[in-house]
Structures are given as structure tokens and as C-alpha cells.
Specification:
Radius of gyration of chain B: 29 Å
Structural class of chain B: alpha+beta
Distance between the termini of chain A: 44 Å
Strand order of the largest sheet of chain A: 1-2
Number of strands of chain B: 10
Shape of chain B: globular
Shape of chain A: elongated
Largest sheet of chain B: 6 strands, antiparallel
Strand content of chain B: 5-15%
Structural class of chain A: mainly alpha
Helix content of chain B: 55-70%
Order of helices and strands of chain A: HHHEEHHHH
Number of helices of chain B: 25
Distance between the termini of chain B: 57 Å
Number of strands of chain A: 2
Helix content of chain A: 55-70%
Largest sheet of chain A: 2 strands, antiparallel
Oligomer: heterodimer
Radius of gyration of chain A: 28 Å
């Protein structure tokens, strides 16, 4: 893979500043152990701890000051206004909740009608989250999947139409996919917030993420 | 060293204020660099507090007596372990320890949640930083632990009170502080959710484990306190409703209520406002408890003493917390409306609602009882006491109701239970309850309250066993394994639920222990050499008393031969010790305890030992079932541990686990808890020449029970028990009144005349302001019932435009397929 697509910055491959602090702390702790030998184990341990805590203070000061002076870009993956991690977690918890509902029904703690209603709502939410996560991973994956499906179909329909046509088909597929995604979004507009793309419950009045009226 | 310490505290205060300001600014301006800098400053706070703690401990270990705090709580011969634990031994150090713990927990909470709850983090940081700032401010301006002597530095310190040099004593405060401080984290997330408006369940999920973790340590701290009171204080009991004990109990009630009501919000999106209020109240109560202990508003053997300036500062902080938090709640009320209604009173939601009400009632009641002396002094000018009988009278029925709900709650269905449902679920637990009640009645155990308690314990146990078996069968059908593996997998896949059931089992055992105290026996014997006495099934013989000396202390030890049902079993050695360096203080009571699951034999040697004739006064107790309390805590801790495990900690759901693992853990925990050390006594000025002579008649015995000692150093002990000079004087006065032929009320009035108030009474007379004490629980209970009824009626009105559910399947079959795949992968 060329460095153009690599996300690791040049800085990462060298010595990082926090590593410097750690090494310095270990070095000082070792030096202090030699200097303080004969003064009792308690003294040595205390001085060692002091070195480590001073290093911790150094790292923390760095952590406090660096964001203000460096122009490092925020590399956290965001989908809408939420981080990918948050969406993944919510999806996981929603799936867990569905499984708990199923268990409650099996144990006789939930009537069938109630189960259907609650489970459907949760499944809708989980599906919405899946869609958001798919969309957030860029159109690339979605397009590749669509392409794979269409190419499989078109291989039986017609022979190869040449690279130019293929490219057109590719672009056409991409456009179609994009349109379909947009269409899906429109279709479920009452659940997706227009402002931040968060999936809300069917009966929600305000978006739970940004507070905008749905 | 001291100046470094002071500088560090000041620096931490500055860094905290920067952290709070920059986090809020960054959140408002959506500036990532500012927010990250704020988080960095927050981590820096933790690092600085670690250094400050290291400096303090270093001062203790290097015997730096120029620091007043070190000189007060340490000396050169103090063992290493107690030098370290002296860090939190005094008020100043304990505040610093609080900030240290809060900074560590805060750092952990922020680090773990930095990606998942990004929008909340700036305000979480700001909230925790503000709380830290308050405590740091307290230290910087008022109670600096690094204050030095101005002129002469003492050559040696005073040393930690030897009665505090005890293993249990060392871990009891850190455990309690972990519990208290841990409750700040849920509060911070709650405030962040309120400020940002992100009031869906995400903030709840962030704090659930923290609340459980803090709750576990709060329970542990309270249990340690109970063990210690039982083994060391020598009054045969484990909970005296002392104000400081109550201060630890109050947040426990509200935290327990929160841990339950959070389930209702997650499942049914109800009780959203209530959960927010509970979290704020729990945090407030932790601060209030700290305030009570440190300001001198309540009298207690535990309290740090009088400090009006501290009281003022705490009051300002508490008012600020309440104003700001509840202001935010009111502001966000529209976003907090419930999404669903209460469909039926016979539902799990309703059970949780009642559970919450009962716990809150208990908390408010204990709070009221604890503050009653202060309130009565403020309003009427005289301090009235509310002692153990008052609390016990009300909290026994409360405890039984809670036990009942613990059994019934898991059996009820969500939304509504049908009759068939109820029959199916309640059959076997109902049979178990009825059988136990019949058996206990047949054995002569009174229905109120021990019999009922046993029956309800049977109900809860039967419910839990049924849940495990039925759940195991469901899983067995789904996975095709044997029942035992299915149950292990069941617990692994539903850690929270089944961990919770194990916790309930622990509660059952604890209640069993409480039930035993109903048939407690207590007697005072004056025994000459070779004299025998009987208590319960035990016969005690005085085989003499010997004095010994080990250089550090002088000990008087009685040799008591014990027989049970005529058969000799063992010798027990209750004693008293006087420490060389602390002769002017109270002699330490060395209680002798013979433990068994059925009952404890508990012997205390009273101070009036006649070495010449080898005559002793022996206080003997038989405490049935008390060891089940300690065992119950072990089970509770195990259950909480399971519930706290991370999601993926049980990926090998189909693997078999040796059954011994669980048993070993419980036995180890129980063993750890039961191996108590018999040290420590109260700071009570006991007169060695005092003996509690038997009462002349029934009236005197009754009055002795109703009156408590006013010496101020005992826990307001009844005159039947207290052996200090003041109590002896009161008993003489009482005898004089009785000899004059006065009646009950006349004698009370005479004492009011002597003491200028009712403070000697164990419970206030039912008149005037005192009537408030009696009336309050009824009023509170009635208010609670009305409030719940009102809420229930409001919620039961079905909304006219309930949104119709869309089709049961998703539009996209591929997506449906993926969803099913992911669901399958979860198991």
C-alpha cells in the first residue's frame, strides 16, 4: 500500500514524547536505586515511586498543552455527530436488549403481543444503526457490495461490453447505489434526524442527539 | 516536603479550575483542541494528587514530625502498615484522600468513555473538576494537611490511637470513601446529559457499572463497620443507628433504588426524571454524610468534632449542588417525559416503583431521625434524642416489605401479568413460603417479625432457585447441552440478571441474620471463683482471672469454661487491656466470641474485677444466626462481581466450569470476613469501680431501659448497660426517686427538672414538637402513597394518539438477514 492511503503520520514512526518520559522515569528510578542503596528498602521504593509519579505529571502536562499548540487533526471516525465507537456500542446494546426480550418471553415474563411490539421497535433501531454504520464506512463498501451483486447478475445477461461500457456501468451503479441510499433515507425520514442523521424512535418528537424537532 | 505538598495542592486547584473552564469553553465553541486540553488537565490533576499523596506517605514513613498531621497520627514505633493508613486517619488527610480517589476514578471514567460518549465528556470533566475544586479549596484555606509547626518541632509523634491500629479499621474508611467518591461519577454523567440534552439511555449505560462498583464498596464498608462494632465495641450488637453509621446508609438506599429503577428506563423508557433525581440525590447524600461527620452538627462517637467554618463551606456547596442540579432537571423536563405508561399494577414496573418508594421512604426516615436532634435544637432550643428503638420499630416492616418485593418482583411480567402467568410463576415459591411459615409457627417462633422474615426468606430463595432452573431449561433447549452447563452459560450470558439474583440471595442470608436478633439473649452475672451461670443452652464457669503484661499493654483475662447442654466444649477468654502509652484512655475490651452458624456466644468482661477474690462481672450474650450476616455479604459481593464482569468475559459459554470454583470463592470470602481481630473499644470513660447492680423492681428496670446515659462519649447507651460514672449517678438518682414511691411519669418529670430537658430519654415524649417525630413517618408514608397513586393514575390514561406500529418486518430482507446473523453471533 502506498503512503498516500496510509493513515499513519510520520510522527508516529519516530520516538513519541510520552515514551521519552517513560524512559526518563525508568532511568532516573534506576539511578536513584543505586544512589540510595543502603538506606533501606522503604526509601528506595518511595524514591522510585516519586520518579514514576513525576513522569506521570510530565506526560499529563504534555497531554494538556499539546492540543493547544499542535495542529494535529482529529482522527476519530465520526458518523454524523457521533463517533463510530458510540454507534457500534449502541448497536451492540440494542442487539443485547433484543436477546433479553426473547429470553423474557421464553421464561413467560413477557406476553407475545408485548414482545412483538417491543422487539419490532428494537429491531428497527438496530437496522437503522446498521445502515448508519454502513453509510459511515464510506460509500466504497456499499458500492462494492452493490457492484458484486449487479456484476453477478449482468454476467449472465450480456457479454462483456468493453472497458468503457464497464466503466459506465460502474459509475452508473455507483450513482444508482447512492440514489438508493438517499431514497432509503427519505423513506425512513421520520426516524432519521435531518440535522445529524441519528436514528430516533418512531414516536419521538425531538432528536435525542441534537435536540432538533423532527 | 511540607511546602512541596502545599504547593502541589494549590497547583492542583489551579489545574482543576483550568480544566473545568476550558472543557466548558471547548464544548460551547465545539473546539476539539480546547476539550482535549481540558481532558489533559484532568489527567494532570490525577497525576498531581498522586504526587501529593506520595509526599504525604513519604512524610509518614520518614517520620517528618514538622508536619502537624504526621505528628498527630504517627510515632516512631508505629508499624509500617499503620503509618501508611494514617494518611486517611484524620480529617485533613481524609479530605485529601477523597480528592485523590476522585481524581483517579474520574480519569478512569473519562478515559474509558472518551469515544463512546464524546458529547458528554467535556461536561463530565467540568463537573468532577468543580467537586475536586471544592475539596481542594477546603484544604487550601482551612484544613491543610501539610501545615507545619511554626517553632518547635516535636521529637516524636503522638502515635495513632492503638484502638485504631486494627486491620479492619484500616480498610473500613477506604472502602467507604471508594463508595462515596464513586457516586460522583454517575452524578457527573447525569449533569453532562442534562446540560447537553442527550437524555436517551446512553448516559445510564455509561454509569451503570460505576454505580454498581461504588455500591459494592459502600456495602463492604458498612459491613466492615458492622463486623467491627460487633467484635470490638462489646455491646453485643452490630448497628447502633449512630448518626455517622446512618450517613453511610443513606446513599446506600438511594443507590440501591437507582440500580433497580434504571432497568425500568432501559426496558420501558419510564422513570426518566426519577432516575435523574435519584442520581443527584445519591451524590448529594454522600456530600451531606461527609458534612454530618465533619462539621459537628450531630453528636457521635465517630464524628471528627466541631468545626463551624467547615460546616459553613459545606452548606454553601450543598445549596449550590441542589440549586444547579434541580434547576437543570426542571429546564430539561420536556425532554425527560416518559415514553410509556404503567399498564398494570401487577407488573414488574409497578414492583420496581414500589421498591423505589420503600427505599426512599427508608432513606428519608433515617435522615429525619438522624437530624432530629439538630432540628429540635434549632426549633425548640433543646436537643432531643432518637435512639435505636425508634429506628428499629419503623425499619423492620420496611425491611420485610423490601424482602417481599425481592421475592415477588422477578416473578412478575413486564407491562402486565395475567392470572395464568401469576399461577405459573408463584406456585412453588408460594408453597415454600406457606410451608416455612407453618413450620416456624409450629416451632413456637413468633410470626411478627422472625416468623414472617423466615417465610419471606423462603419466598425469595424459592424464586431465585426457580429462575435458575427455568432459565437453565430454556437455554438447554436452545443449545442442546446438559442442565448444569446450561446454567453456567445462562449466568455467563445474563451476568447482570443472574448476578443480581445471587446478590438477592446474599440479602436473604443477611435478613436471616437480622431475624435471629429477635431471640437474642443477654444477661449480666456476678461470678465468684468457680461460680456457674446459665444462659440459653450454655453454662459458664468462672475459672479465675489473671493479669499479664507484654510490654506494650497490661491485660486482665478471665478464664471461662463453657458447656453446652451439659457437655463441656471449650474455654473462652474475655479480657480488658490497658496500653502503656495510653493509660489515661479507656481500657480496650477484648470480647470473646464463640461462633457457629446457629448462634454466637459472646462474652464481655466488665471493668469491676476483684482480683483478690477472683470475682468478675460477666456480660453474656447469645446471638442467634448472626454469622449469616457476614456470610450473606460474601455471597452479595460474589454476585456483584459477576454482574460487574465485562460482556466478553464469558465467551466460552459452552465450556464446563468446576463447580468448586464458586464454592471456594464464597468460602474464602466468608473466611476472610469471619477471621476478625478482637481489638478496639469505644472512647468511653468507664469507671472501673462501677457495677450495674440489679434493679429493685419492674418499674426501675423499665425506666432504666427508657433512659440513656448523657455522658456524651457512649452511644447514648441505656442505663441497663452503661458502666460509666455518669450512668451510675443517674441510676442512683433513679433509685432515690423510686424509693420515694414516685410513679413512672412523676420520675420522668423529676429527671426533666434535674437535666433541664428530655435528652436523657431514649425516645422523646409524645407531645408538642416531639409528636413530629412520631407523626413524621406516617405523614411521609401517606405522602408517598398519594404521590405514587397520582403518578400511576396519570400514567394509566392511555394517550389518544398512540403511534401505530409499522410492519413487523423490515423493508430490506438483506438487512433483516444481517440482523439475524448478528443476533445469532451474540450467543
Amino acid at each position: 500500500m502506498s503512503s498516500a492511503t496510509s493513515t499513519k503520520s510520520a510522527e508516529d514512526s519516530g520516538l513519541q514524547t510520552w515514551q521519552f518520559f517513560l524512559l526518563a522515569a525508568l532511568g532516573c528510578a534506576t539511578a536513584v536505586t543505586f544512589l540510595a542503596r543502603g538506606q533501606g528498602i522503604v526509601s528506595i521504593i518511595l524514591l522510585g515511586i516519586l520518579m514514576i509519579t513525576t513522569a506521570a505529571v510530565g506526560i499529563a502536562v504534555l497531554r494538556m498543552v499539546r492540543p493547544l499548540v499542535s495542529s494535529e487533526e482529529d482522527r476519530t471516525v465520526m458518523i454524523g455527530h457521533r463517533t463510530r465507537a458510540a454507534l457500534e456500542r449502541e448497536k451492540h446494546l440494542t442487539l443485547r436488549a433484543i436477546k433479553e426480550l426473547e429470553f423474557d418471553r421464553a421464561m413467560g415474563k413477557l406476553a407475545e403481543a408485548d414482545f412483538q411490539e417491543m422487539s419490532t421497535r428494537l429491531r428497527m433501531r438496530a437496522a437503522g444503526l446498521l445502515r448508519q454504520l454502513d453509510a459511515g464506512s464510506g460509500y466504497r463498501d456499499q458500492i462494492e457490495r452493490d457492484l458484486a451483486a449487479r456484476l453477478k447478475g449482468s454476467r449472465y445477461d450480456s457479454g462483456s461490453a468493453g472497458s468503457h461500457n464497464e466503466m459506465q456501468t460502474d459509475t452508473g451503479s455507483a450513482r444508482l447505489s447512492a440514489e438508493r441510499i438517499a431514497g432509503e433515507r427519505e423513506a425512513s425520514a421520520e426516524r432519521l434526524c435531518a440535522n445529524c442523521s441519528t436514528v430516533n424512535d418512531a414516536d419521538a418528537t425531538f432528536c435525542k442527539s441534537c435536540g432538533v424537532k423532527l | 516536603m511540607a511546602s512541596l505538598g502545599s504547593f502541589l495542592l494549590l497547583a492542583t486547584f489551579v489545574v482543576c479550575s483550568y480544566s473545568a473552564a476550558v472543557s466548558v469553553a471547548g464544548a460551547r465553541r465545539r473546539s476539539r483542541p480546547l476539550i482535549e486540553s481540558g481532558v489533559g488537565a484532568f489527567y494532570l490533576t490525577a497525576a498531581l494528587m498522586t504526587v501529593a499523596s506520595a509526599v504525604m506517605i513519604n512524610a509518614f514513613l520518614t517520620n517528618d514530625y514538622s508536619i502537624k498531621y504526621v505528628a498527630h497520627y504517627s510515632d516512631s514505633v508505629q508499624p509500617l502498615f499503620y503509618k501508611i493508613t494514617s494518611y486517611w486517619g484524620g480529617l485533613d488527610g481524609s479530605i485529601m484522600f477523597w480528592v485523590f480517589l476522585l481524581s483517579i476514578f474520574g480519569t478512569l471514567a473519562v478515559y474509558v468513555n472518551r469515544e463512546r460518549h464524546r458529547e458528554l465528556i467535556p461536561y463530565v470533566v467540568a463537573t468532577i473538576a468543580v467537586v475536586q475544586m471544592f475539596f481542594l479549596y477546603l484544604m487550601v484555606v482551612h484544613k491543610n494537611p501539610f501545615t507545619t509547626f511554626l517553632t518547635t518541632v516535636p521529637a516524636d509523634g503522638n502515635g495513632l490511637n492503638p484502638l485504631l491500629q486494627n486491620y479492619w479499621m484500616a480498610i473500613h474508611p477506604p472502602s467507604l470513601y471508594t463508595g462515596f467518591v464513586g457516586m460522583t461519577i454517575p452524578f457527573a454523567f447525569c449533569i453532562a446529559a442534562l446540560v447537553t440534552g442527550h437524555l436517551d439511555d446512553s448516559w445510564l449505560r455509561a454509569v451503570r457499572r460505576w454505580t454498581m462498583f461504588a455500591w459494592l464498596f459502600l456495602t463492604f464498608g458498612l459491613t466492615l463497620g458492622m463486623i467491627w462494632a460487633y467484635e470490638v465495641l462489646g455491646w453485643g450488637g452490630y448497628w447502633g443507628w449512630d448518626p455517622v453509621e446512618n450517613a453511610g446508609l443513606l446513599p446506600w438506599f438511594t443507590a440501591t433504588a437507582f440500580l433497580h429503577s434504571v432497568m425500568v428506563q432501559e426496558r420501558r423508557s419510564m422513570l426518566r426524571v426519577w432516575n435523574v433525581i435519584l442520581v443527584i440525590t445519591t451524590f448529594f447524600l454522600t456530600i451531606f454524610g461527609t458534612f454530618m461527620t465533619r462539621s459537628g452538627v450531630v453528636q457521635s462517637v465517630h464524628a471528627f468534632g466541631d468545626d463551624p467554618m467547615l460546616a459553613r463551606l459545606f452548606t454553601i456547596f450543598m445549596v449550590a449542588i441542589l440549586t444547579f442540579s434541580f434547576g437543570l432537571v426542571i429546564y430539561r423536563l420536556p425532554l425527560l417525559k416518559a415514553r410509556n405508561e404503567l399498564d398494570s399494577w401487577v407488573s414488574r414496573e409497578a414492583a420496581f416503583l414500589v421498591n423505589n418508594w420503600v427505599l426512599l421512604f427508608a432513606a428519608l426516615f433515617v435522615l429525619f431521625g438522624t437530624m432530629f436532634p439538630t432540628l429540635s435544637e434549632a426549633i425548640m432550643g433543646q436537643r432531643l434524642t432518637v435512639a435505636a428503638p425508634f429506628f428499629n420499630k419503623w425499619l423492620i416492616p420496611i425491611g420485610l416489605i423490601l424482602l417481599f418485593l425481592t421475592g415477588v418482583g422477578p416473578l412478575l411480567a413486564w407491562r402486565k401479568s395475567t392470572v395464568r402467568n401469576l399461577l405459573e410463576q408463584f406456585l412453588w415459591p408460594g408453597v415454600a413460603t406457606a410451608t416455612t411459615l407453618a413450620a416456624t409457627t409450629a416451632l413456637g417462633i413468633p410470626v411478627w417479625a422472625p416468623g414472617l422474615c423466615f417465610a419471606l426468606c423462603a419466598l425469595v430463595t424459592a424464586t431465585i432457585v426457580q429462575e435458575f432452573l427455568r432459565g437453565g431449561n430454556v437455554r438447554r433447549r436452545n443449545t442442546g447441552t446438559d442442565l448444569f452447563t446450561a446454567i453456567i452459560g445462562l449466568v455467563g450470558r445474563n451476568k447482570r440478571r443472574y448476578g443480581g439474583y445471587i446478590v438477592h440471595l446474599g440479602i436473604v442470608l443477611i435478613f436471616l441474620g437480622f431475624a435471629g436478633s429477635g431471640s437474642k439473649k443477654e444477661q449480666l452475672f456476678r461470678l465468684k471463683l468457680h461460680d456457674q451461670a446459665t444462659i440459653g443452652a450454655f453454662t459458664l464457669r468462672n475459672d479465675g482471672v489473671k493479669v499479664s503484661d507484654d510490654g506494650q499493654k497490661q491485660m486482665a483475662t478471665a478464664y471461662i469454661s463453657v458447656s453446652q447442654n451439659g457437655k463441656p466444649i471449650e474455654s473462652m477468654y474475655p479480657g480488658r487491656s490497658v496500653f502503656r502509652k495510653h493509660e489515661d484512655e479507656e481500657a480496650r475490651t477484648d470480647v470473646a466470641i464463640r461462633r457457629s452458624l446457629a448462634q454466637d456466644l459472646y462474652l464481655v468482661l466488665a471493668p469491676d474485677v476483684d482480683f483478690g477474690t477472683q470475682t468478675i462481672t460477666l456480660q453474656a450474650f447469645v446471638n442467634p444466626l448472626v454469622d449469616w450476616i457476614w456470610l450473606g455479604f460474601g455471597v452479595l459481593a460474589f454476585g456483584t462481581g459477576i454482574a460487574l464482569l465485562p460482556e466478553r468475559a464469558y465467551s466460552f459459554a459452552l465450556a464446563k466450569l468446576p463447580a468448586e470454583a464458586a464454592t471456594t470463592a464464597v468460602v474464602l470470602l466468608a473466611g476472610l470476613l469471619l477471621s476478625g481481630v478482637s481489638l478496639k473499644a469505644q472512647q468511653h470513660q468507664v469507671d472501673p469501680n462501677v457495677a450495674v447492680t440489679p434493679s429493685k423492681n419492674a418499674l426501675e428496670e423499665q425506666l432504666r431501659g427508657e433512659m440513656g446515659c448523657v455522658c456524651g462519649t457512649c452511644a447514648h447507651e441505656a442505663l441497663t448497660k452503661c458502666t460509666c460514672g455518669t450512668a451510675q449517678q443517674m441510676r442512683s438518682q433513679l433509685r432515690a426517686q423510686i424509693d420515694q414511691g414516685k410513679g413512672h411519669d412523676e420520675i420522668i418529670q423529676a429527671f426533666i427538672g434535674i437535666y433541664g430537658g428530655q435528652q436523657f430519654l431514649q425516645a422523646p415524649i409524645d407531645k408538642g414538637f416531639n409528636r413530629v417525630a412520631w407523626l413524621f413517618p406516617y405523614v411521609l408514608g401517606a405522602t408517598g402513597v398519594f404521590a405514587i397513586g397520582f403518578a400511576a393514575i396519570k400514567w394509566s390514561h392511555h394517550s389518544a394518539a398512540a403511534p401505530p406500529e409499522t410492519s413487523a418486518t423490515l423493508d430490506d430482507p438483506a438487512l433483516e438477514e444481517r440482523l439475524n446473523d448478528e443476533l445469532r453471533d451474540l450467543d
